[in-house]
Amino acid sequence: MPRVKCTLSYDGTHFSGYQVQPSSRTVQYEFERALAKLHKGQHIQTRSSGRTDAGVHAVAQISHFDTPIDIPRDKWPIALNGILPEDIAVKDVEPVADDFDARYDAVTKEYRYRVYTGKHPDVFRRNYTYHLPGLLDEEAMKQAASLLLGEHDFTAFCSPKTNVKDKVRTLYEIDIYKQGDEWHFRYVGSGFLYQMVRILTGTILEVGKQKRSPENMTELLKDKKRHLAGPTVSGQGLYLWEVNYS
Fold this sequence. Notes:
The protein is α+β, with helices and mostly antiparallel strands. It has helices spanning 27-38, 76-81, 138-146, 196-208, 216-223, and strands at 3-10, 46-48, 57-66, 88-96, 108-116, 130-131, 150-153, 168-179, 182-189, 238-244. It folds into 2 domains: 3-96, 2-Layer Sandwich (Alpha-Beta Plaits); 108-244, Pseudouridine synthase I, catalytic domain, C-terminal subdomain (Alpha-Beta Plaits, 2-Layer Sandwich). Helix content is 20%, strand content 29%. A hairpin with a 2-residue loop joins strand 8 (168-179) and strand 9 (182-189). The longest helix has 13 residues, at 196-208. The two termini are 24 Å apart.
């Protein structure tokens, strides 16, 4: 059957994550349920570029699936969006080679994290930002980020719950910038370990609060001990922004 690549976005607020889980509402479950309706009850197995945790959002998650249905490319989003719940939207569907793999063919991924620094909680942003009141030291955070670039073993920045043995990844870019009363963190890498972006952000924020030095990043990479790094900040501020295949 022909294979297609699908780009979808979702608001992760009311999902228990991306991957199908028993007795939980997930993005993959809703997506495959919509595909089944479109395929007259036939189950269509999908594979995504990676999982996202509960509360995490996606601007451009990538998934592939095989389908016997011949639908013009511009009609796929219309057909699926008419079935999907309002917190998931298909942005594009395109034909790909039969051996294309949304997960293993990915070359780089980009994640972004939003931190709201206002004095009081913002009820309208509570599901889309992490609230950390007060000032942050921009220069120190950028210095810390620069020490994390390149190929490293990121064991200290990975949840111990992972089953992944090889924790070597490459970070190509980390941008930190302020927009109004928010700080935005942008990460581009070859791949990311379980909760890696949230732990990196939590650790860099401690540098911004002058609770640890920028140079501590080098020590953490060397020591490879998760308990020495910063906290795992909450999922609602995290966005899977882009997945590149070339």
